[in-house]
Write a structure and sequence with these properties.
- β1, α3 and β2 form a beta-alpha-beta unit.
- This protein has 13 helices and 11 strands.
- The chain has about 325 residues and is of the alpha/beta class.
- Strands 1, 2, 3, 4, 5, 6, 7, 8, 9, 10 and 11 form an 11-stranded mixed beta sheet that branches.
């Protein structure tokens, strides 16, 4: 598990209450007057409804204007509005890599939510520019009719075994495998590993959901760097799929952030607080997400055990994301 330095944790603990409420001493009353908050998010309409029901139960006066966009479409909209000088969103929810992309040109503001101290260490920015709301773990997934647990790859080195050549699917849309290896082993060794993996005649498929469906149908026996939430949900439906953790297991973050100049500043802070609260995290778990707040259970005991084990490597993108995506596409055979 990636952990914050003790000094950063101490500083955060001191600043959370001050920065949260000194600027808006009556945040609840201010939010009540504003009455609404505009949320740009990659959360689907179905998942948002579960979350919104919980938010309405606690804050019935707050109208959350939910704008659902895929990650790339959201990025295009946000950058277009930013260049025009009229970003309409109060709160942005996306992958951590997307939010870091927004931070550089000054789109994001800083807000240290008092709820962030309850998250798993390392899942909130000590400067307040983003807070993780959910995670997903990247695991080895396999079709139980095609390969047994004992014969499936037990770690990243096993992915390079010639016996698995041509049998492994990988998501072509996100370079999580490459970024994970680079942040774990360093630039040179991480890229060298992915070059060798690319020689395994991988089967690139776009989208974790699509890979999950094809894996369950027996189109291939293995899927690597695969989201555990998708596999666990399919497993619960009775599909012949299962998974194995890595060593360490890569973890990705979906995060939430406040706009630098939100149209509804108090409501924006209140919404972020709710995302990170016990009630908000439980609502996300009911939608099949893996919460980041300590002592809030995920949809599966096996996932909770892995989260509590500490054997995770949180992927926090560094360097040129566009360059990594280009290298990743070359390595896995996407032209």
């Amino acid at each position: 598990m990636v952990r914050l330095k003790s000094s950063a944790i101490l500083l955060g603990a001191l600043l959370w209450p001050a920065l949260s409420f000194a600027q808006l001493p009556n945040i609840l009353e201010q939010a009540r007057k504003e009455g609404e908050v505009v949320l740009y998010t990659t959360m689907t309409v179905r998942d948002f409804e579960l979350f919104n029901q919980a938010a309405k139960g606690k804050y019935p006066f707050l109208n959350i204007r939910h704008v659902y966009l895929s990650s790339s479409r959201q990025a295009a909209k946000v950058m277009q509005e930013h260049r025009a000088g009229r970003l309409q969103a109060d709160v942005l929810g996306n992958s951590l890599s997307a939010l870091l992309h927004y931070k550089e040109p000054g789109i994001l503001g800083s807000y240290l939510s008092p709820e962030a101290k309850h998250l798993i260490p390392g899942s909130a920015d000590p400067d307040g520019y983003w807070s993780g709301m959910t995670t997903d773990l990247l695991v080895t997934a396999f079709n139980t009719r095609e390969i047994s647990r004992a014969k499936a790859p037990q770690g990243y080195s096993d992915y390079l075994n010639p016996g698995f050549r041509g049998q492994m699917a990988i998501n072509s849309g996100v370079p999580y495998g490459l970024i994970g290896m680079v942040t774990l082993r360093g630039e040179e060794q991480g890229i060298a590993y992915m070059k060798r993996l690319g020689q395994q005649n991988l089967r690139p498929v776009e989208g974790f959901t699509h890979i999950t469906n094809l894996l369950a149908a027996g189109e291939f026996p293995l899927a690597i760097f695969m989201q555990v939430s998708k596999i666990e949900a399919m497993k619960e439906k009775g599909a012949p799929v299962d998974w194995l953790p890595g060593s360490p297991t890569f973890a990705t973050l979906s995060a939430v952030a406040i706009a630098r100049e939100p149209p509804h500043p108090a409501a924006a802070r209140l919404l972020i607080d709710f995302y990170l609260s016990a009630e908000g995290q439980q609502a996300l778990a009911r939608a099949g997400k893996i919460p980041l707040r300590r002592r809030v259970k995920s949809p599966a005991k096996e996932i909770d055990a892995l989260l509590e084990s500490g054997g995770l490597h949180v992927i926090k993108p560094e360097g040129d994301y566009t360059r990594y995506m280009k290298l990743y596409s070359e390595f896995i055979g996407v032209r």
